[in-house]
Design brief:
Elements (H helix, E strand, L loop, with lengths): L16 H18 L6 H16 L10 H10 L4 H17 L1 H4 L7 H9 L2 E3 L9 E6 L10 H18 L1 H6 L1 E6 L5 H6 L2 H14 L4 E7 L5 H11 L2 H4 L2 E3 L4 H5 L18 H14 L1 H7 L12
Parallel strand pairs: 2-3, 3-4, 4-5
Antiparallel strand pairs: 1-2
Length: about 300
């Protein structure tokens, strides 16, 4: 089985097609060396087919069974079939259990368009030195009395799903989340209830087939650990160790994310926030039909089976 090659959504490397191909080649070698991905085509095909045959015995999941989707789950679980099966089950059951995140995902709906224009969730256009996808999460840019917190999470999940579909490198190196808490208020904090936080952590560590490599909080108020301790309560030990707080220091962020890939507003030299917002708005709206068609992939919880 040839390696599935989705179209890269944006410039993964230095901006040229040649640079992107080099980076992709390095990523595929990384997958073989660190994610247990078989180098042999037949062995890769056998692993994908084994997972697909198992899914045929789980029709209630209504899961995608194409090569690319199954490869993502295998990579996310280092090609361990039992772990991939658990994660697939969790993912498609979550898509049913949390309709406020996974139903009505039309990016042209006014509430979602508003958040896209605001740029609450902005993947950077270039990877970092380790190949990771840097995602800028502007957690308090919205008005908590106007925008639903569930829609904020929905936009984030929509763009992660879209990246998994279009960016092969993210499926290998994972995500580095930069959470900007500028402007956070009591109204924002009150929306982050323990049940909501528990669902969010469950999605990151137990459902999505992408590794969260680091979660770095910037422009954090002095009381940030009050909220973060609730998040940590639901995190496994590995994820807890990947949470870092930078306070108000942009220079501290620059030690872990190069200014060469950050927008100007974050002390970087790679374009502006408005350019990022415009790009992801156009890209998401252009994939409207894909979002609508994929809403059908969710578990039928009334007909679940082991």
């Amino acid at each position: 089985m040839p390696r599935p090659k989705p179209t890269l959504a944006y410039s993964a490397g230095a901006g040229s097609a040649e640079a992107d191909e080099v980076l992709l080649g390095q990523a595929l070698r990384h997958a073989e060396q660190h994610l247990n991905e078989p180098e042999d085509e037949d062995q890769r095909a056998a692993a994908v087919e084994e997972l697909r045959q198992w899914l045929h015995t789980q029709p209630h999941l209504n899961a995608r069974t194409d090569d690319w989707s199954l490869t993502c789950f295998l990579r996310g679980c280092k090609y361990k079939q039992d772990r991939a099966r658990r994660k697939i089950t969790n993912y498609y059951e979550m898509r049913s259990r949390v309709p406020e995140w996974f139903h009505q995902r039309d990016p042209t709906l006014p509430a979602l368009m508003d958040l896209l224009k605001m740029g609450v969730f902005l993947p950077l256009r270039k990877k970092d030195a380790e190949g990771r996808t840097i995602v800028l999460i502007r957690a308090a840019i919205h008005d908590p009395y106007k925008h639903k917190q569930s829609d904020v999470f929905k936009i984030g999940k929509m763009l992660v799903d879209l990246l998994l579909e279009t960016d092969e490198i993210m499926s290998i190196y994972g995500v580095f989340a930069v959470v900007d808490l500028s402007g956070v208020s009591l109204g924002h904090a009150l929306h982050l209830t323990p049940p909501l936080i528990k669902k969010a952590v469950h999605a990151w560590q137990d459902c999505y087939p992408v590794r969260t490599r680091s979660m770095d909080f910037i422009n954090a108020p002095v009381y940030v650990n009050v909220v973060l301790n609730i998040f940590r309560k639901f995190m496994n030990d590995k994820l807890k160790k990947r949470v870092h707080v930078h306070g108000k220091s942009i220079s501290s962020l620059h030690k872990v994310v190069s200014p060469s890939i950050l927008p100007e507003e974050y002390g970087g030299t790679c374009g502006t926030l408005q350019e990022l917002k415009d790009y992801w708005l156009e890209f998401a709206v252009g994939k409207r039909q894909w979002f609508l068609e994929n809403e059908k992939h969710k578990a039928n919880l009334n007909n679940s089976q082991q």
